[in-house]
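User: I'm designing a mutation panel for methylmalonate-semialdehyde dehydrogenase (CoA acylating) and want to avoid disrupting the core. Could you give me a predicted structure to guide residue selection? Please restate the sequence first so the numbering is unambiguous.

Assistant: Good idea. Sequence first, for numbering, then the predicted structure tokens:
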Amino acid sequence: MDTIGHYINGQAIGAGAGERSAPTFTPATGEQIGTVLLASAARVDEAVRAAAAALPAWAATPALSRARIMFRFKELLDRNLDRLAVLITREHGKTVEDAKGELIRGLEVVEFACGIPHLLKGEFSDQVGRGIDVFSQRHPVGVCAGITPFNFPAMVPMWMFPVAIACGNTFVLKPSEKDPSTALVLAELLAEAGLPKGVFNVVNGDKEAVDALLTHPKVAAVSFVGSTAVGEYVYRTACAHGKRAQALCGAKNHLVVMPDADLDKTVDALMGAGYGSAGERCMAVSVAVAVGGIGDALMEKLEPRVRALKVGPGTDPDSEMGPLITREHLAKVSGYVDLGVTEGAKLVVDGRGLKLQGHENGYYIGGCLFDDVTPDMRIYKEEIFGPVLSVVRVPAFDDALKLVNEHEYGNGTAIFTRDGDTARAFDYGVQAGMVGINVPIPVPVAFHSFGGWKRSIFGDRNVYGMEGVGFYTRVKTTTARWPNGQRGGAEFVMPVMS
Ligand code: NAD
């Protein structure tokens, strides 16, 4: 069994005196596979101090040199992709191909960060007054902390630290205690790429470690991705302690199906977006909105596909969907399906109680599909974060738009239609941060930025892309005048003060 520790100042760190720990499991079989150390406030302090000590030299390192380390890190990620994907599957449960997908999306942010010399170029205005010029520079903010969720143990940290580090900051990452190993491998690869000690540190842990980061006087900025309840707390606490903060949170993403949509393509999209990664994605589609009588035809095509979903261990290349993250989460998701039945929704496909031969203790649930879901139901209002798709039927486009806009979350959304005018009206009027037009999971590419609206985000900066550069830098604007130049050429008389 592995003991999963921390990575501080270029060194792997094992258990300290009195340090708490928690078991880690492999969701495919439910077996315990390791023990993760849970950092105390003193351990977090050690990591933050290491990051603070490394800051002056790293901030003064030319952006080109920082970018070259990112190039080497990208190469190492490419070379270690298979090994990392298997590690993610072991602790998270998602299929190996899906794990590779998350690694590649993270790697794309590293590629973006390789362009940092260009991205950090400032602004310049000459002659704003007579003989006066103004220029702005982007400086690092200092020690940055990242607090990340279980569902993307590689991609979400890589939404943050490549940009932060390339901008000249140092970083302390607190990954999810449910799948903590990937972050430690990323730390080793960064060191192999030539990153100086102390620039990137990992503390594993739970609330105690998070609280220590949020209140530490040497932490300048906090990035969080996770659930809304925790995100709101993290944002408020970080702000109350004078830090910059961004918290990307929960979601309930709607996919609107217009009567003119290509139904086969729409059903393919719903299957991937609703059940891929067992619905444990913040951009998963959990509500399909059937507009104007398309509901029956949609259900007719959707139901057999959900029944036929191949659920199995993530290491089996035939699996389309792996297990859920923990036994507790399995109970929570099954509980939501029970609740939907009680609330009066029509359970068309019931995935509860799935047992796989040889994996009887794994955290599996089959795909679940509800029809006739209404907005007053808790299964509609709350984020389930499992393979449960709710179909809501509405008469017209305006009703669909209103429905999406009245939901408390506004992370991503999508519309499937062949009509450009409808698509444009939806895109313009919808209250969500990321919109797909015939694209089910519109996670923006690395040179744009990721972020939702409403209670899917706290703070005013998205992650990665230029928003990320903005979050991880502070602007210094200089106004310069040089009144006494030496235009007369060389002077041969001994200079004296005038
Ligand atoms: P979570 O909120 O339980 O945990 C996120 C992080 O916060 C973890 O590192 C965890 O250790 C820490 N944490 C947990 N409870 C805490 C507490 N009481 N005080 C301080 N820190 C605490 O989230 P999760 O279950 O790991 O991830 C799933 C959630 O993340 C879903 O809600 C999903 O929508 C969301 N998510 C959002 C995005 C996005 O970009 N909007 C992306 C991925 C996941």
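For picking mutation sites, this is relevant: The radius of gyration is 25 Å. Residues 147-152, 156, 174, 176-177, 206-207, 210, 225-227, 230, 248-251, 282, 383, 385, 411, 452, 456 surround nicotinamide-adenine-dinucleotide (CB under 6 Å).
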